[in-house]
Amino acid sequence: MSTAAETSERPLIAANRADHLIFIIVTLLYWSTLYVYVPILTPFMTSRGFADVLIGVVLGSYGFIQMLVRFPLGLYSDKLHKRKPFLMLGMISGTLSCLLFTIPGSWLWPLAGRMMSGVCASAWVAFTVLYAAYFAASEATKAMSNISFMTVSGQLIGMTLSGWLAGEYSYNAAFKAGIFLGLAGLLLAFAVKEPREGVTRPPISMQHLREVVRTRSLVQVSTLSILAHCVLFITMFGFTPLKATSLGASNSELTLIVIAFMVPHAAASLITGRWFAPKFGSMNVIAVGYALSCIFTVAIAFSPSLGWLAVTQALNGLAQGIYLPLLLGLAIQPFASSKRATAMGFYQAVYSVGMFAGPFLAGFINDAFGRDYGFYLGGCFALMALILTLSWRRDNAHL
Questions:
Q1: Which terminal CB of the chain, N or C, has fewer other CB atoms within 10 Å?
Q2: Cβ neighbours of residue 4 under 8 Å, at least 6 residues apart?
Q3: Residue limits of the Major facilitator superfamily (MFS) profile domain (predicted)?
């Protein structure tokens, strides 16, 4: 008869090497589909004559849908104990997103496409829960480290393809590639291993939600994350590609700007939690990240050439890679395992506000005063986050 300790060392799903490989490929296809048009989205919309205010609305709709959908989707997934159908939902909605962008005419089609990508992104929680079930409880950190690397890799693949396809062929080539990637991911998702009874975990709980929301540290970390995502979705995932094209970047050269941001971003994500946070304290490291992000977000507006813009992206990617993973960890750190799913569901729903508010407000600011003012706004968000981090550092001295 097995002991409780032995049981905890067994994965909930007995997955072999082939099962892991299939899941990894589906995950890479998922993120590639979701990000295959991100670098060219704002130049694409500008080429169709849309004003910055409309571009801001389209960009912001991605976060707005996640505000509405992420938490209920997590509740429903926990109720069913099934994750695989939500993987398929992610692939279907990602494919539809790319398809909607290929329809000519009204700006409502890009809006519908970006809203559909918000549905796609909301399915991500199912990927993380299912993949964690392939590992023993004691290997949870390894599982999350692996899947975080898959995330950045898939995003980088999609964003690298984006500029190359648009440069060699057309904007529609990037969207069509997204359709192909999404359909391939959907077909392969049928082979992802999940038992018929599904995978259980301590569920997102409405009962726990009130207690979780009253936790001071979670509210503080969630507020910082809102501001972090305002900056991210104003810059690389927002208007930075437009700055690049205004400096003469071709669609192919946008790929280099993306790589300049994403590689330091990924590297910082890997080392911050392991080296810097244990030595200097999470809140101190987060403060440094926000200070750097403030400086290099504003610096985007003053970039005189593509070379200088690439430097701002490398340093901003590094800065944002410093604080985003730490905020994610701090969101669930104070909670018992039974409440962590609820805390994470709340945290993810809340930071979607930043995905919406950042580009939405920047679109209006750009339309009224000029495109560089959106980067000033992003710098202000980073500065606000820095001030809050320093003021809350004493409350979280143990972190």
A1: N
A2: none
A3: 19-397
Tell me the fold of 15-190: Growth Hormone; Chain: A; (1.20.1250)
* Cα 95–Cα 99–Cα 104 angle in degrees, nearest 5: 165
Q: What span, in angstroms and rounded, lies between the C-alpha atoms of 68 and 264? A: 32
- Structural tokens at position 248: 């003469």
Q: Do domains 15-190 and 207-399 have the same CATH topology?
A: yes
Per residue in 141-155, pLDDT tens? 677 768 878 888 899
Q: Can you say whether the dihedral through the CA atoms of 344, 345, 346, 349 is positive or negative?
A: positive
pTM (whole model) above 0.70: yes
Under 8 Å between Cβ of 298 and 245 = no
Decide: 144 and 270 in contact? Cβ < 8 Å. Answer: no
175: DSSP letter = H
Tokens coding 74: 């997590």
For the domain made up of 207-399, the CATH class stated in words is mainly alpha
Question: Are 297 and 378 contacting, i.e. CB atoms less than 8 angstroms apart?
Answer: yes
CB crowding 51-87: b at 16 or more within 10 Å, else e: ebebbbbbbbbbbbbbbebbbebbbebbeeebbbbbb
Where in the chain are the domains?
15-190, 207-399
d(CA 122, CA 89): 10
